[in-house]
Hints:
The complex is a heterotrimer of chains A (about 170), B (about 675) and C (about 170). With about 170 residues, chain A is mainly α. Chain A has helices at about 10-25, 40-50, 70-80, 85-100, 115-140, 150-160; one strand at about 35.
Amino acid sequence: MSLDLRNTCNGKQLILLLIFVLLSPLNWAKEAMPVAEDPVLERRMIALSEDLRCLVCQNESLAGSRADFANDLRREIREQMQANKSDKEIVDFLVARYGDFVLYRPPVKPATYLLWAGPFVFLLTGAGILFFYLKRRRKQIEEPPLTEEQHRHAEALLKEDKGNNA
Amino acid sequence: MIPELGNFALILALLLAITQGTLPIIGAARGIPSWIALARPVVQGQFVFLAIAFGCLAYSFVNNDFSVMNVARNSNSELPIQYRIAASWGSHEGSLLLWVFMLSAWSVAVSVFSRHLPDEMVARVLGVMGLVSVGFILFLLVTSNPFDRLLPAAFEGSDLNPLLQDPGMVIHPPMLYMGYVGFSVAFAFAIAALISGEMDAAWARWSRPWTTVAWVFLTIGIMLGSWWAYYELGWGGWWFWDPVENASFLPWLVGTALVHSLAVTEKRGSFKSWTVLLAICAFSLSLLGTFLVRSGVLTSVHAFATDPARGVFILAFLVIVIGSSLLLFAWRAPKVGLGGKFDLVSRESMLLANNLLLMVAAGSVLLGTLYPLIMDSLDLGKISVGPPYFEAVFVPLMTPAIFLMGLGPLARWKQASLPELMLRLRWAFGVSVVTALLMPFIMGEWKPLVSFGLLLAFWVIATIFVSIRQRLHNSGQGGLFTKLARQSRSYYSMHLAHFGIAVFIIGVTLVNGYETEKDVRMEIGSTVEMGGYTFRFNGASPVSGPNYQAMRGDIDVLHNGEKIRVMQPEKRTYNASGMAMTEPAIDTGFLRDLYVALGEPLEDGAWVVRVYHKPFVDWIWFGCLLMAFGGILAVTDRRYRLKVHTKHVETATVADDKRVASNPRLSTGGKKA
Amino acid sequence: MTRFLLPLAAFIVLVGFLAVGLNLKPREVPSPLIGKPAPVFQSQLLHEPERMLASQDNLGKVWLLNVWASWCVSCREEHPLLVELAKSGIVPIYGLNYKDKRDLALQWLSQYGDPYTVSVVDPEGRIGIDYGVYGVPETYVIDKNGVIRHKQIGPVTIESLEKKILPLIKELQG
Lengths: 166, 673, 174
């Protein structure tokens, strides 16, 4: 749209026009700013904190806890991430000071082999026992064959009952 | 006066419980009809006294009697009346009284709905429940009396924890306890069967509806707890694998295994000892849960504050109840006959595989929950076991179980053919895979875990269709609706419950895969966009509640430019305790929840606001409801509503079991489910 | 036959652990720093902000580091004991004023007594994080070589003093 400046007879109209131009799009509302200075970093921090334990709480993660202490640790993690420390380095930092208790994912070390291997071992053992037991059981059970009368009875039931047995 | 009356009623209830726990059992063993006949009336008497006791406690709460210590610690005169009543079970002592009251209610139910059972059996069942009751009432009277006085009386109470001042929190414990206590019925039936030595399939038939109802209550109880955590705690999470949550989940897992195992035992007479063991295990886990929550042994947001002395009492009780049950089991179970024969590939074996997977899952959850304790007691250091462990372990275990959910209903009893099943299900499999691969694109982004979860869910749904279609095909003559009407409720309940699981999985998968969150500073008039919605903050203003002061935010939700809703999250401070609580505002929808919570206040009326878009999150609890409906449908099956069989017929049936067990079509159990 | 006893056996093992568990404190987090060098810090003194104390300054002597704050209720429980201990001169006590305000801290000390040789400030809790502090009060016993030898979680009690802390200090002092 071209503006024929020669036809505008006063600066007031020009100013009005300028105002209109500046005010569109007419969405007045301001987009809210994220709380975190760096939302990407924040997401990374929260993701890491979700697997860490808040030590002063009754079983809450560092991500979810509102405790003052949790705030301090989250700040610490944030700062270390800003200093380009890797997730592993940050976790090691915390474990060095607070022990394995701070990890919600138990470390894999000799004391926890039973924990991590347990379910798998239970499953294999259980499946094995079940399999062999079922095989043995089949051999153990005597199944007397049906008599003539029972056969006929069964046929009759089947004919009448055809609808309900899949 | 009233508290003393309540205390006295408890003592009387104890005496009746002792009677109930001894005479009928001895009477059944020695054949003394008058002692056997005592069972029902004594049960009903115990119920009356426990009702009086509970009533007295509730009365003290409602009337703000702060001379009762329990009331002074857990209530407040500004507390609205519904929460004053709920506070009577909000504490350790009160909740135990509720437990024992519900136990007596279940006992009454058993005494009423058991006319068709042999009297000796009923006597033993009620007797066992009486013994459990003795333990709990004794525990109450000796260590945790809710009627203890506080003298001089307090002017005002310390208030019920604001977290508990919520309708969801009010019904969650009663539902849970109905479930825990309900498993005591299955337990009692199992013990009665062991005591009498009559381990035929009849007891499985009798205890099945009771077990299912207990399972339904537990499902609803757990679902309510999860839903409550979601809408109350302000972070949108719904399951934390917290020790107390696990303590409720363990009996549920075993209970589910039990419900399936009872099906095998009822129909085929097989695996009677295994089912008995499961019934003992389910109730034992309920008791173990009680111990874990109240002994201080595990750290949890849910734990009651108690002292180790109480822990010792409960542990002793556990040892006596579970120890003697397992001893009885070791003694009697070996003598039981084996029941019907079946192939390695058959519906029986698939149900057993289901049992195996559920029990391994339960064992793993138990291991993870107790491992920190185990390590600490062995002086190996302190660790934490949290969601990363449980999720890594639970999901792989449940995957084959869900796969089996598709095969099981289609497999024949006694002998099934794997190739035939695969043939029948090839379309179901194909459809599931294709749909699971395509759906994530509709949601916006393909994610492998989402596809996997959807595959499981769609597999279940597709196989339900195949199963019903096949069933209808074999249902004789008639139109679609005639055929549909011919199937038993039991049959539909199975599919409904399994369908509930599929819905649950869809909810979990999609919300985990696609939920979004924004944590923003909102000045008055500013907006934030998420999930196709625009949220406009209009400031927060002070409001007053019955027992709290709050700042209430005002947020317009716009969709396509149109205002569809106003959301009003609150930040409350409770008068009595000074505790602060965040109450999120939730817009519930079939396909998504919008979840808004206030954070901290900033300058100039601005606030930090957390906004979440959670797609399909309500499908999680809807799925649980469907499971519960499935259970309810199952217990209203025709065979439970038929006129009472005479005892004569029943005893004949019992003798027939052995002959009949090997030929399913002659079974008198009625329809196959 | 014996396989039917397995559930009972498993149960007994479980009960064993639970019984032991009743006497444990699941919320107490033991410090992994015991036997390791005390983290180095340098901070302003509470009373004289222009002066600093570095933890290395204490090498060569056995000392206690007590983490305290004016907002900490349990600190008041242990404080009289610390004051007495300081009077006895057995071991110097250094305070770490944790996440506190200077004027409130000074006021608290003048009200309840000052057992500390000096107190250093840790307004943001950073020194605390280095030491694995997660609650207040906590007390560390540090030896002549700057190695942490013991951590007392929670208030110092007469029992913990008599049974653990004092004997250890005596041993470390040689």
